Amino acid sequence: MSKQPVRVVHTGHSEKLGLQTVTEVPASSEARPALIACTVATAAELPAVKVLSSSFLANHPEARFLALVVDALPENSGPGLVTPADLGIGPAELAELATGCTAAQLCGLLRPKLLEQLLGRHVPVLYLDPWVLVLGSVVDRVLAAVDRGPLVLLPRALRPLPDDGLRPTPAELLGTGVFDPGFLVVAPGAEPFLRSLHEQLRRTPDATKAVLDTAPALVDVEVLRDASIGLSAWNAHQRPLHRLDDGTLTVLGEPLLTVHFQGFDPGRPWLLSTAVADRPRVLLSEHPRLAELCTEYRAELVRRGYSPVPVRYGFGQLADGTPIPDELRADYREAARENTASAFHPPLSARDDAATEQPPTGHASIGQASAGHGPDPAARVNGTPVGATRPPVPPPPPAFAPDGGEGFLAWACEPAPGLPGSTRWAAALWRGDQQLRAQFPDPFGADGPAFRDWCAGAGVATGRLPVPAVPGPRADAPVLHDQLGVSVIGVGPAAELLQAAARASGLPMSTTVGYPVVVRVDDDTPVPAGRFVVDYRLDEGPAPDADELWVPSEATRAAVERAGGPAVRVLPLPVLEQEPYEPEEHEGVVFGALADHEIDRDGNVIGAVSAFLGAFTDQADVRLRIAVTGAADHPEAAERLRLATAADPRVELVAELGPVDCLISLHRGRGDRVTAALAEHAARGVPVLVPEHGAVAELFDKHSVVFVPCRQGAEPDVQAAVKLLRALADDLPAAREIGAKGRQRLDTRTTAKVGDLMRERVEHAYRTWRARRAAANPSPTVDPLKALHSAKHALLRQPDVGVASRTPMAPQLRKMVLRVLDHYDNHMRDVLASLVDGVERTVSDLVRRQDDLSAGIGQAELEALRSEVEQHLERQGRLSDQVLGLDDDVVRVRADMAGQGRRLREIEDAVVAEAAKRAKQGDALAQRIDKLTVALERTLDRIDTLESKVVDVLRERDTRLDAGMRAANQAQQTADALRRVVVREHERHGDGVPGVRSSLVLTEVGLLRLPSDDAFMLPILSSNGVWEQELSELIDSVVEPDGIFLDVGAYVGYQTVRMLSRFGTGGAVVAVEPCPSARELLRHNVLVNLPERVAERLVVVDAAAWESVGELATRPALTGGVSVAPVPEEATDVARVRAARLDKELEAVPELHGRKLSVVRVDAPGRGHRALAGLVRLLRRDRPHVFLEFSVSATEGFGDDPVTVLKEFRVWGYDLVPVATREPASPEQIVAALEGMRSTSLWLRPRPVQAPQPGPQVAVPLRQPADQAI
């Protein structure tokens, strides 16, 4: 089938690809290069491609470099850049490949195609991933390696990875592949391997790992075991870096040549690979040289055009921007693979073509000799003739065709195979999302409505699937028709035969579950409740929900019937009437056999072959033709038969049997399937030789077939079959007579006769269903003697003479009559009582006899009686239903007419009543308005009274407030005077800090000295005496009595003195202050306000807390103290201070050993995250509470991204809790809330840990220049 050209439509691209400037090709192209390097990437990876090309050509000026951009338009190709069109990939093929592959899969699929074309220049070709950085020349090592083999592979690691729980793990290495596909070298001679790799990737786009692992078996491979090449997250822990005096990076004593940054995210530069962010084996904080390399690489990416705004993959989404799920791409590949012209169905190799076109020589000669006498025996490929081809399956339309993806969307919105009520898109989305699978375990069954609501709501709102792909409501179960009928469901020949028998029975029949009796033919489809389910099985038992089991033979019934199981009944399969074969003139004798590989052992076709070969060892005029089915699904059994018959050219394997002189079957077991197949041929007059057991022995007698005796139960006697075959071959007229009798024997299995039997079975099942439904709602049992007992009690009643009457003296006259008739009345009462007693005894005896008769009647008689009664009831019910149907229609029409008249009268009454009601409502409304007017006047009077009272109350309250304010002001003035007295007295008798101008203030923690030029903290403490009261209370609530309080940016020691006084001699306080003057004031304040024993618990760090050890520049801060920053380049006159990692500083203090870090307070806006980065090891070990003064503007001014900084705190295991709200918040919420604010206090609250980690882990610090954003 020829395809129309398809134009590839890109759905997303940056117009500024810079395709003409991807790389710089040397001006001189006359000389033949020694090496050609290439890469395959997407448009989103162009900055990395530019870094790779520039670094490669800088170290290899004699080489050439090419880049293939898979989602670039053909018109954008240029020097150093190629597109898929340059590789011979047409628009239609590219559209199909891009639809069925992800970006990584498409790059991997086109990689061998690019390498094979570049090998046409007869020079070695080096493939490098886009995320590779070249630091030195690799030409000598590559050329030396290709001399030893045309394919050079690079292992990811040269030593086994330890199984310590860190990532990457050994299992991940085995799953991803031992060899790195980001570094491949091919030379002339590797073309067959590249073609094989390309074909395999077309079938399975994720097979790169498997093909590379098996490459040593396909081509001469040289493994490049060089530690200086391929530094990556897989091996960086095994290859420590060192920098020489000239700046060269070395690994294990050799210059570092290439670094593979696969997985590196410039937005998260503190991680070497984001793929192993949870438990990274390599921490950049522990490898400073590698961290510097990552920083330099990130800077190169930024210079080459990297932007935090991602570039859309050209084949990643539909025209409306909806991304295509990866699972849907896989479904598309599977569907497209059904078409032989698909891009995912590569052509067969030459060896496969030869094997298909050339049959074995012996079979070919036999086929030529027997031309015209049956099917070509050379047609034996999996039991299908060579010339026969399946009709081509149209491939699904690609998503990037000129129609804008409408055809693909229509295909994706179709129901997934086997999932009614679904769409392919929704099913693929569910399979690829673990959360959806957990939330909706049965998305198209029990959880269908909820999953459909999610798709229509959140799924469409988030752009994960288009509106047409939302699954529709599932069709309800068919309506149950309460009438005699049968539903036959199932597929296959047996189901078609039973459906024909059901139609011949005269019963209403359907292929849906609409009737009470449902017959499932070799099918386990669930049936709605309220049906009588019958399983029709050929060789196996019923499903658990079956009420009855029907089998085609008594042999099967005896085998599957068991106590406690469903009733088993026999219903033979009908045999369709067929015309007999016309006699054909041919030489010799042609025997036939059937080979159904699905029942290979029971079919025993090998036994038939053995009998044939034993009967005719050297007769060339005798042939055996075997009709093969199921070879493709059972290749082992097919190969066994092919191997058993390959040596004898007289044995032919064909797809259809055709006319034969005799049919052989030496099957074992019950053989229902075999019997049905044999009956089909026997109906055309073919004589049959079969074993005398099972279902075939029930169908035929000894006059209509040739029986082979069996030994050991059901095992046919092959030697007896050999003799019978010889006899049949010698007397073909007698064999034809047997075939005619066999055809006549099958008259008992016509469709009409089996239909009559099926009608009886269905009627019985229907009666059982009716009885079961009636038993579900039983009527209460009534004593038949109850009415008689009630009548007997009536004899004891006495006449009531006091009944009112118009006749005067009626009561007295009644008494006189009763006295006169008393004797006669008593006599009549005795007679009637005797009569009633006799009737009661007679009825009781009749009831007892009826019960005895019911209990003693035979089951057969009861079943027959019940059957007759049910037949009469059924006929009566049908007639009643018809009459009732007519009556119901008449009654319904009359009821509708009466209802219409009644509604008209009701409307008229309602109109009259509404008019009267409206008149009454008008009068009532007028009266109510008058009452409301009076009430309103009274309310206004009360409001005036209340207003006067409120004015008096407010005046009195203001007088009291004025008096209270005067008293408070006087107390405040008195307190201030006392404070000044205390401060002056202390200044008079106390000593200041030499060399530091300071002022003394009285606070809640004691007398503190602050720098005299402090314009922020000093005024507040002078007036209030309290600093950060809310934060102090929060620290007190979480600090541990014997822990360590770390005060970073302690300044003059307000929190230090307060916590020392709280700890006493129990805990310890570490104060970090880089400013020398503030540090002296801190020590002075501690000595003045605390006892000596308590002051000894203080440890002062005279350095700036930072992520690394070194020096920092200092400058005065507006809020007091100093602010630190990295030392600018070429700066000589700036003040400097020592930078220290706090984890190392604390570990170096012996007094702190054995103590746990309890609370960390960091008062360094914009620098606090850098200080915490040097403490991450202790943060993960002790998990203290951290109180951080955070400023968005200061963090941005320092060059870091506030949101990224806050996300890193969450990676360390902390919740972000603003102190002001005490509620956790996301980084984006915090940054948004701080808009326009200077800073805020954050509480980094440690999250609970479920289980201890394998070992202490240190998070990656934020290491980068100050002018770069995180």
UniProtKB/TrEMBL annotation:
Pfam families cross-referenced by the UniProt entry: Methyltransf_21
MF GO annotations: methyltransferase activity
Comp. bias regions, Pro residues: 391-400
Domain of life (superkingdom): Bacteria
Domain Methyltransferase FkbM: 1047-1215
Keywords: Coiled coil, Methyltransferase, Transferase
GO-annotated biological processes: methylation
Stretches for region Disordered: 341-406, 1246-1270
Coiled coil: 929-956
Name assigned to this protein: FkbM family methyltransferase
Origin species: Saccharothrix australiensis
